[in-house]
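User: Fold this; tokens only.

Assistant: Input:
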Amino acid sequence: MTKARTIGTPAAKNGLTCVNLAMIRGGRHLGDRSLFPQNAEGHAPEVILEAFLTQHYADKPIPHLILLNVELDTAPLAGILAEQARHAVHIVTHPSGERRVWLNMAEKNALLAIEQRLAQHATQEARLAALIEALRLPEETARIECFDISHTLGEATVASCVVYDRSAMRHSEYRRFNINGITPGDDYAAMRAALTRRYQKIAAGEGKRPDLVLIDGGKGQVGIAHEVLSELGLNEIELVGVAKGPERKAGMEELIFADARIPIQLTPDHPGLHLIQQIRDEAHRFAITGHRARRGKARTHSVLDEIEGIGPKRRQMLLTRFGGVKGVGNASVDELAKVEGISRALAEKIYALLH
């Protein structure tokens, strides 16, 4: 059986660089991924590919054979990868025969991924331009941050902040805030806490300042946000609330302003509204996943604390053995009973209470 191969091919167009990573085993194409290395613009293909392979395989299984479409000094890179993998790694540049066919396919896929990314950017730029015009925002508006609050009847409140910049969502810059010390269910207090924590550092000169802040909420939430930004001396940041319309239907959102402007509704097919919905929905998704995780962790801890026979030591052993509260909840009775100090009867009790 042919050992696994990875085919790495960089392609560049209009300032975008893509590396297509194709996986081949036994002559069969098992799939591929198109990845866009950061800060690649202006660098030679061999530099980009060498840096990419070193970083990509820092925490992943390394194949025995890697095919590249770029000429580079393979010996040092192969040595580094072989040391990490603890087996020989062969790197071949510009192969022939069947290997060349796979490499050509990867090159075409890299260029196709770039074309798709450029088309997405064009759509996003059009949406942003439409939003700037509709809301009378400064022409240089590019960075948008959006906040949402999630809880269940006040339990495990989590606030999210998602970031849209340079025509894309910036997942690495997302932040969640666990909200404590407020009256359960007080969304205004939760929003105040999240905004204060987010923008205190920016007011002190640290981090990137947004051009526009979106608040998932109506007049009251926008008022709280305006107070926080004013207290921090960030009045110049544009602020807009996204309130659900009378029937709470998508496309009927009202846009609330912090100043005296009358709320407006964009038409359901307005590109600017589509951008707002995209960012707002992402903030909602990010908040609710964080809330569910926090709520599940809190409830599992609470249940473990209430089980007779589970003290701090046994609770810690369970959490360590299964990698956290989620693992304990997913464990079977047999698996629970294998933990030191957990009898079969106690394992059955734990399982029953967690399910």
